[in-house]
Write a structure and sequence with these properties.
GO terms for molecular function: calcium ion binding. Helices cover about 70% and strands about 5% of the residues. The chain contains seven helices and four strands. It has a two-stranded antiparallel ribbon. A two-stranded antiparallel sheet has the order 2-3. About 10% of the residues have low confidence.
């Protein structure tokens, strides 16, 4: 009986990292799926002229609208109070999922001159990279097909990362 319990305990200890890895992989896949859905919805919202592509003009207009919404006191910059409000809204959208501790906060990265305030230009420069990474032909606009291809690359990268722990 003791041998059976010891064997069960050893098996549990040996397999626990695999179970944790699988759970982490499932969570990553869920986040990636939600991100893909968010990107697709955002694409549809950004494509104001409904030509099937989001160009720089549409991105700049969306960035200006977002900045104006965030700059609640209308002083031309996003200060720490306004940045906190943005973070709170983002946390609410995520379902209060905490951001990764090793990732620099998006708003902190946007404050290029590190003066504690985000100007309209800093905000605009930080708003476009996620979409422009999908511009595979570098023509300054992103089509739905390019966005789908980009999401596929993210999926492959996640699958590869999930496969690593199992292979070790």
């Amino acid at each position: 009986m003791i041998r059976i319990a010891a064997a069960a305990l050893a098996a549990t200890v040996a397999l626990a990292p695999l179970a944790a890895s699988a759970a982490a992989g499932d969570a990553r896949q869920d986040r990636l799926q939600k991100r893909a859905e968010m990107m697709s919805k955002r694409f549809d919202k950004l494509d104001k002229n409904k030509d099937g592509a989001v160009d720089k003009t549409e991105m700049e207009a969306a960035s200006a609208r977002a900045f104006d919404k965030a700059d609640t006191n209308k002083d031309g910059v996003i200060d720490e109070t306004e940045a906190k409000a943005i973070r709170d809204r983002m946390a609410e959208r995520r379902g209060d999922r905490p951001a990764k501790a090793n990732r620099k906060d998006r708003l902190e990265r946007a404050d290029v001159d590190k003066d504690g305030k985000i100007t309209r230009d800093e905000f605009a420069a930080s708003a476009t990279p996620w979409l422009m990474r999908a511009d595979s032909d570098k023509d300054g606009k992103v089509t739905k097909a390019e966005l789908d291809e980009y999401v596929g690359k993210l999926q492959k990268r996640a699958d590869k990362a999930d496969a690593k722990p199992a292979a070790q």
